[in-house]
Structure formats: C-alpha cells, structure tokens
Amino acid sequence: MTDVVVAGAGLIGLSVAWRAAQRGLSVTVVDDAPGGGASRAAAGMLAPVSEAGYGEEALLRLCQASLERYPAFLGELAAATGRDVVLRPAGTLVVGFDDDDARALADLHGFHVELGLEVHRLTGREARRREPSLTPRVRTAVHVAGDLSVDPRELHPVLLAAAEAAGVRLVRARAAGLLTGDGRACGLALEGGGEVRAGAVVLALGAHSGALPGAPTVPVRPVKGQILRLRGAAGLLDGTVRALVRGRSVYLVPQGDDGLVVGATVEERGFDATVTAGGVHDLLHDAIEVVPGVTELELVETLARWRPGTPDNAPVLGSTDVPGLVLASGHHRNGVLLTPLTGELVADLLVSGETPALAAPFDVSRFG
Ligand SMILES: Cc1cc2nc3c(=O)[nH]c(=O)nc-3n(C[C@H](O)[C@H](O)[C@H](O)COP(=O)(O)OP(=O)(O)OC[C@H]3O[C@@H](n4cnc5c(N)ncnc54)[C@H](O)[C@@H]3O)c2cc1C
After folding, report:
1. How far apart (Å, rounded) are the C-alpha atoms in residues 28 and 30?
2. Separation of 316 CA from ligand 1 center, angstroms?
3. Which domain holds residue 106?
4. Residue 205 near ligand 1, beta carbon < 6 Å
5. Each residue's pLDDT tens digit in the chain (368 positions)?
6. Among the atoms of ligand 1, which is closest to the Cα of residue 205?
7. Which of the two ends of the chain, N or C, has the fewest CB atoms closer than 10 A to its terminal CB?
C-alpha cells in the first residue's frame, strides 16, 4: 500500500510524483515505457506567448506561471541529481513572408500588447540580424524574448532520477484499470496480473488518459504530431524560429550543440503512429523555405506521437467525481512548459485535499 500511485511516467507524471514524494507521501509510478510518449517527441519550446491563441488567456497565465518556475525547478533538479538541464536563453522569433503574414503578425502583436506581454516587432532586416541564416524573403517578424526552450530528452531522465532519489518507486508495467472500493479510487490493476493499492490515484497517462478501464471518461484525445530531428546545425540558429508557410505553421528549435528539431504536424487520426512521406516532406519543405541551410543537415530521426488534447486546449487538473482519483492530463501543446507547475499544484492537492487557486479554472467539471 502506497499513499499515491501515479499512472504514467511522462514528464507530467514524474513531476507530480517527485513533488508529492518531497511532501512526505509514499509514491509509486506505473509505466511500461517511461518517457516513451509525447514527452519523447516534444520539441521543448517553453513558449507561453508565441503559443497563445485568442480566447486562451487563462491558459496563457498558467503557462506563464510555469515558465517563471523553470529556472528554480531546474536548479532543484540539479541539486537533487548533480545533473544540469540547459535552459536555452535565446527567445523566439515569429517570422512572416508576405502581406497576409504581415497582417497576421500585426494582429498577433496587437493581441500580445493588449495582454501586456513583452514582444517586439522587427523588420526583415532586423530579424536577419538576429538570425542570419533566415531566408532574405523574411519581411516581418515578432521577437518574444521570454519564450525559451529545453531539451525534453535531457529533462526526462533527470526528473526520473530526482523522483527515485526522493523515494518514488517505479513499476515497469501497464495499468490495465482503475481499482475502486466503497466508491473511492484505491489503486491500479496491472496488465498480466498484480495491482498497486494506494490512498489516491493520479491519472497522468498523456493522450491515453481518456479511457482507463474503470475510470470515468476524461475528455482527452490524441492529437497526432510528426516531428523531425536533424544534426549538423551548430551555429545555424540561436533561438527558436516559427513561421507560417502557405498557411502551415512550422517551427525550428535548436537543441544541444548541433541538433535541430523541426515540427510538427497537427492531425486528428487517433493513435496512429505512422510517419508519412507527406508529413516529412511538408516539414522539411517549410523548414527549408524559412532557413535554406537546413538542406545541408543530416536527418537523424522521424517520430510521431500524440499530444493529449482537450476540447479547449487546456489541461485537466484536479479532483474528479470519484473520490481519490486526481487528473494531471490534457496538456496538449504545452506539457513540457507546464511540467514544473503541474507537479506543484497536484502535489498541493494531494497533501491538502484542497484545489489550489491556480488549478481551479482547469477542473474537469468545466466540460459539464
Ligand atoms: C510533436 C510534438 C511536439 C510537442 N512540442 C512541445 C513543445 O515544444 N513544448 C511543450 O511544452 N509541449 C510540447 N508537446 C506536448 C507535450 O509533449 C505533452 O503535452 C507532454 O509531453 C505531456 O506529458 P505527459 O506526461 O502528460 O504525457 P506522455 O509524455 O505521453 O506520458 C504518458 C505516459 O503514460 C504511459 N502510458 C500510457 N498508457 C499507459 C498504461 N495503460 N499504463 C501505464 N503507462 C501508460 C506512456 O508510456 C507514457 O510514458 C509536443 C507534443 C508533440 C506530440
């Protein structure tokens, strides 16, 4: 018997587990492929501002609150494990090519200014001064100095090590269903037999959170994303570049010494993990339009995974109608960004039984 069992050892499940263990709870995490889900695919942009959409102001505030925590979060992880995860300091440049893009960027800039966000409009020339490898066809840009990035593949093992050092037990198995007794969640049944009994269950199965047998239906669906990793990009870009190329959005995120991540498709295809010729073609084509030097890079990996999407693109955090069952899912495009704050909020809830104020707008009851 453990105080808490967390279903899922992606970035979200691990951050919850780590923070809960730090608060003195005994914690077990169940996952047959820790870190093999969306957390493996993610580009690692920490981009509350450039990801902000109209009508998503509450999500923007949550994302900003999480980004503010990132430096301290990584500092604590380094203290716990002796391993550094790099927070890339260069911001994000959103670039446009034609009149339509210029209008769209002007609207976006107006929206950002209205929200009091710190963003700067640049001419094409100013943009290229910042990122000389951009195509000369770039005519306009917005620079978001505060939108940063990390490498999720660097972060995940460090978070796992910190969680284990704090006493979290990892069970490498698949959760087959939620166990309930007297109307309460009381653990997980494991595939192939066995179970983990617990005082509380946290559902952090990413895109798979929607349909754990025995659990209430959660409005989380898989949103497929194909993404590419390239090598040989040392010095090509300083920070993240995002663009719309003929209506399709593409981003280029430098990682490590010479890596570049190019993403990502957005597809409603259920749990389809196929990497398609069209998906790879479109991403490479669009990336080369923005930064022609991408042609020279080595393509080292193609991957498809599923964002945990919700009807309003915001996460579902907090209690459910089943006492003892807590949700930490639905982080959609922002799960890497929301990792520090989600762990903190859900651990608060597990310890106090009260929903923290920051999490309240993201209660699953908002969907009726
Ligand atoms: C292409 C792409 C690019 C992205 N880029 C960014 C980005 O730049 N910035 C950003 O902030 N976010 C980004 N995201 C979103 C981000 O990856 C997710 O929001 C985040 O990883 C969700 O984390 P998670 O822990 O909830 O889910 P996951 O990482 O998917 O983890 C879920 C875990 O549950 C496990 N699991 C599933 N079913 C079971 C079961 N039955 N029993 C036991 N274990 C199970 C899986 O093995 C997995 O380890 C991107 C996503 C994609 C797909």
Report:
1. 7
2. 14
3. 88-148+222-309
4. yes
5. 999 999 999 999 999 999 999 999 999 999 999 999 999 999 999 999 887 777 888 999 999 999 999 999 999 999 999 999 999 999 999 999 888 888 888 888 888 888 888 889 999 999 999 999 999 999 999 999 999 999 999 999 999 999 999 999 999 999 999 999 999 999 999 999 999 999 999 999 999 999 899 999 999 999 999 999 999 999 999 999 999 887 789 999 999 999 999 999 999 999 999 999 999 999 999 999 999 999 999 999 999 999 999 999 999 999 999 999 999 999 999 999 999 999 999 999 999 999 999 999 999 999 98
6. 34
7. C
For the domain that residue 233 is a member of, what is the CATH number?
Answer: 3.30.9.10
What's the CA angle centered on 242, arms 238 and 244, to 5 degrees? 150
In this structure, the answer to whether residues 295 and 230 fall within a common structural domain is yes
Q: Which residue's alpha carbon is nearest to atom 51 within ligand 1?
A: 42
d(CA 253, CA 247): 20
The CA 114 to ligand 1 mean position distance, Å, reads 32
The answer to whether residues 43 and 106 belong to one domain is no
21 backbone φψ class: left, alpha, beta (φ>0; ψ -120 to 50): alpha
Instruction: Work out how many domains the chain is built from and give that number.
Output: 2
Whether residues 249 and 290 fall in one domain: yes
State if residue 329 touches ligand 1 by the CB under 6 angstroms criterion. yes
In this structure, the answer to whether residues 109 and 6 fall within a common structural domain is no
